[in-house]
Specification:
alpha+beta, 6 helices, 9 strands, 40% helix
Length: 277
């Protein structure tokens, strides 16, 4: 007879669900709202605990598992443009994690799961947590931004408090620059294109001083954005939070706009770079 500690069962599955949801969000290139991801992970952990309560074993039926998986992704990413992609990736990543745990069980002759495939172990908790973290980094590293769109031109509108500008933008599948805070894509624009509407403190050639002047003026619009490019191992771009960014007439909210000190056009008739948005 196996004694199950509900608090440990909930904690392990909370961590596993959180890392899975975080990984698939990065893979799908969607916005990451950590509180919603945590809420979805908690819902999944609660489901895993309920399965073992007396009279609720029917929840282990495959249809209930399917419904629970959909509910978890709806809580974490409901309303997002890539919801279907996130849902499919979540089930795929869950299967990959389950396979990794099963492989360790077979190789190490240890038990890391309970009946119905629920993650639990009172003895090898550190090993199980290590598997969770390792799978998260593998998924994020090798499958991030799957299914990107091909390169094409789009109409871009950037609105700041000081004015607005309309540009041609290239949808660049190699452009993976994102906001570290929420994983949302960053628009890269040649700074001369915005020269007429940039704040007086903004100097793309000196991003650090620009941020300091911005904060001294009582604003938090500016931030530093690390990047890597051909010939640049580790550089810094001055980025400003736009009041609104629109791509082909669709509003995308307050994205970061990174000011490139050099032109981004290679003769293709565009003045900005965007990713798969």
């Amino acid at each position: 007879m196996t004694v199950v500690y509900v608090d440990l069962l909930f904690l392990l599955n909370l961590i596993a669900n959180y890392l899975l949801l975080l990984a698939v969000g990065r893979m799908a290139g969607t916005a990451l709202l950590r509180w919603r991801i945590g809420l979805g992970a908690a819902a999944g952990a609660l489901y895993a605990a309920l399965v073992f309560l007396p009279g609720l074993t029917w929840l282990a039926h495959w249809s209930c598992k399917l419904a629970a998986g959909v509910l978890i992704t709806l809580i974490a990413y409901g309303g997002e443009r890539h919801l279907l992609r996130v849902t499919v990736l979540f089930f795929g990543a869950s299967a990959a994690l389950a396979g990794a745990v099963l492989g360790l069980e077979l190789l190490g002759n240890v038990s890391l799961t309970l009946e119905h495939g629920v993650f639990y172990t009172p003895l090898d908790i550190r090993l199980l947590l290590l598997v969770f973290v390792a799978c998260y980094f593998v998924l994020s590293l090798f499958f991030r931004r799957t299914g990107r769109r091909r390169n094409e031109l789009a109409q871009l509108k950037i609105v700041f408090d000081t004015g607005a500008v309309d540009l041609n933008a290239l949808r660049d599948t190699g452009h993976t620059l994102t906001d570290p805070a929420d994983n949302r894509p960053v628009v890269v624009v040649c700074w001369q294109t915005l020269a007429g509407i940039l704040p007086s403190w903004a100097d793309p050639s000196d991003p650090i001083q620009s941020v300091e002047r911005c904060h001294a003026a009582g604003s938090h619009q500016a931030r530093l954005l690390p990047y890597r490019a051909v010939g640049v191992e580790c550089g810094m771009l001055l980025a400003l939070r736009a009041r609104q960014v629109m791509v082909d007439g669709k509003p995308l909210g307050q994205l970061l706009v990174a000011l490139s000190p050099t032109t981004v056009d290679d003769g293709g008739g565009y003045q900005a770079l965007i990713g798969g948005i």
